[in-house]
Amino acid sequence: MFTFLLVVQAVIAALLVTLILMQRSEGGGLGVGGSSSGLMTARGQADFLTRATAVTAVAFVGLSILLAGIATTRQSDTSIDTSLTRQADPVAPIAPLGGDAPASEPVDSDILSAIAGQAESSGADEEDAPAE
């Protein structure tokens, strides 16, 4: 039933697009012109197309809501296909953070003072430079 309603929805959508394109807009549109002596006058044709568009639009929206309701209550196969899952490579265990792990080498304080001295001397050079 869902598939049938889905096909009907597609037909209504195509009909709605056709009706909208047939209407005359201010720019002329794709409306079929005709003389006043024909089967339908221009005014009668506009009224018919307007009403037909309104009815088709209501049918389209109503059927959309109906299809959404059916889709949410529809029972489908809910099993998950696991045939394409990747097998994870085994990961080496991480060493614990105990006394067994080697300690990193302490940073020599002479290196830190040398870096600080270079920073101070470069800052002093900028202060002594003449202002331009």
Name a few traits of the molecule:
single chain, mainly alpha, 132 residues, 3 helices, 55% helix
Query: Ranges with pLDDT <50 over ≥5 residues?
Result: none
Query: Into which percentage range does the β-strand content fall?
Result: under 5%
Structural class per helix/strand content?
mainly alpha
The level of helicity is 55-70%
N/C terminus separation: 86 Å
What is the strand tally? 0
- Give me the Rg, rounded: 39 Å
* Number of helices in the DSSP assignment: 3
The average pLDDT value, as a whole number, equals: 75
How would you name the oligomeric state of the polypeptide chains in this document?
single chain
H and E order: HHH
What is the overall shape? elongated
Major sheet characteristics: none
Overview of the molecule:
With 132 residues, the protein is mainly alpha-helical. It is 55% helix and 0% strand. It contains three helices and no strands. Helix 1 runs antiparallel to helix 2. The N and C termini lie far apart (86 Å). The model has no long low-confidence stretch (mean pLDDT 75).
Summarize it:
This protein has 132 residues and is mostly helical. Helices cover 55% and strands 0% of the residues. The protein has helices at 2-22, 42-73, 109-128.
